[in-house]
Amino acid sequence: MSYLQLQGLAKRYGGFVAVDDVSLSVGRGEAVALLGPSGCGKTTTLRMLAGLIAPDGGTIRVDGADITREPAHRRNMGYVFQSYALFPHLSVARNVGFGLEERRVPRAEAAARVEEALSMVRLGALGGRRPRELSGGQQQRVALARALVVRPSVLLLDESLSNLDAKLRDAMRHEIRDIQRSLGITTLFVTHDQVEALTMCDRIAVMNRGRVEQVGSPEDIYERPATRFVADFVGRANILAASRGADGRVGLWGSPLPVQAPPSGEFDVFVRPQRIRLAAVSEPAAEGVARIQGQVSHSVFIGDRIEVVVEGAGGQLSVEMPSGQRPPAEGLEVAAIWPAEDTLLFPREAP
Ligand code: ATP
After folding, report:
1. Closest of 70, 77, 47 to residue 155, by C-alpha
2. Which of 30, 158, 201, 300 is the most exposed place for a label (fewest CB within 10 A)?
3. pLDDT digit string, tens, across residues 263-312
4. By its UniProt entry, which InterPro entries does this protein fall under (predicted)?
């Protein structure tokens, strides 16, 4: 059952189509990430939901009611801006209570709700401070409390973790996800950060050039990308040009590639670096296994893994090894091996 429903949402700026026919259903209590590169239309979509931008086409429904033309203040959506947008001259408590004042909630009730919201984000003791007296993570929590205090039907988060350092961002991801789950609040958040999308939501909608390319669980998106764009954007990927021999057999870097039902035109082969194992060239080919050969050009220690680049007849291949292993010496001729079933094929796109 969908609680929040976008149907054919569109927005143009002059002749430029920023959001193009976006449809998406979000279930009650579900968290969905809008993931995509800068400029793909994520924020525009979110702002249309919040009522901050009027769509040129399409509808927005919440719990069955069409709110497409409702003004922002009648939508009951909580919006957390990327910049937090806190009022610098107001205390933390008044920042959080702002929406309640606007809604003329009686003072005693408002005070109780502000306290509750602040303790939910673990800022119970800091209500009297000004925003500038808080760290970035604390300001982020104030913005979240401010959005939650009005008990919104939908929570909208716009790149709200991007101003935090890596460690704090990690912690906040879990914290926000826990709060979202415990409140069971329907949430849509915008991010260009795939780790954020993969860890913070039930489903991901991957956007590209104003359109939704794929909607699915994090596992779906990562393991079964539907398009070349999704494969390339989410996670690390090798995308290699396949060749086809006169006999119709598919080859990669001069080696036969055991894949079934390849597309009819030109196509590329996709495989994740961590699915590939490096072996001695003397290791024989096996059934159901893809195997190409090349020379180790370099390896880089990244901490939790080692990235090895293999160069061969068709270009470069990225291989990921667990960091405990010893990387092969540069210049060594190696076989790169992976289960053929971990290969996806995408029709070649014009650059
Ligand atoms: P980012 O992560 O960089 O914020 P985004 O995916 O959120 O990117 P949007 O902010 O939705 O992208 O913008 C989508 C496209 O629409 C961009 O190409 C942007 O330049 C364009 N755009 C956004 N707002 C306007 C505007 N007011 N006038 C003209 N073009 C706009």
Report:
1. 77
2. 300
3. 778 889 999 999 999 999 998 888 889 999 999 999 998 888 999 999 99
4. AAA+_ATPase, ABC_SmlMolc_Importer, ABC_transporter-like_ATP-bd, ABC_transporter-like_CS, Mo/tungstate-bd_C_term_dom, P-loop_NTPase, Transp-assoc_OB_typ2
pLDDT tens per residue, range 222-243: 999 999 999 999 989 999 999 8
By CB neighbour count within 10 A (0-12 exposed, 13-18 middle, 19+ buried), where does 265 fall?
exposed
pLDDT at residue 89 greater than cutoff 80: yes
Q: Distance (Å, rounded) from C-alpha 121 to C-alpha 104? A: 23
User: CB of 36 closer than 6 A to ligand 1?
Assistant: yes
Evaluate: CB of 46 within 6 angstroms of ligand 1: no
18 CB near ligand 1 (under 6 Å):
yes
CATH number at residue 24: 3.40.50.300
Pick the residue whose CA is nearest to atom 17 on ligand 1: 39
Say what the ipTM of the complex is. Answer: 0.94
Q: Is pLDDT of 351 > 70?
A: no
Find out whether the beta carbon of 160 lies less than 6 Å from any atom of ligand 1: no
pLDDT per residue over 164-216, tens digit each?
Answer: 777 888 888 888 899 999 999 999 999 998 888 988 899 999 999 999 999 99
What distance in angstroms lies between residue 18's CA and the mean position of ligand 1's atoms?
A: 6
Q: Are residues 22 and 117 in the same domain?
A: yes
Q: Does residue 244 share a domain with residue 221?
A: no
Question: Ligand 1: distance of its center to the CA of 135 in Å?
Answer: 29
Which residue(s) pair with 190 in the sheet? 34, 158
Q: Where are the beta strands (DSSP E) in 104-242?
A: 154-158, 186-191, 203-208, 211-216, 238-241
Distance from the alpha carbon of residue 232 to the mean position of ligand 1, in angstroms? 22
> Which pTM was predicted?
0.87
Task: Please state, as a whole number, how many other Cβ atoms lie within 10 Å of the Cβ of residue 245.
Answer: 9
Query: Is the CB of 146 within 6 Å of ligand 1?
Result: no
- Determine the structural domain holding residue 270 and report its residue range: 238-347
Number of domains in the chain: 2
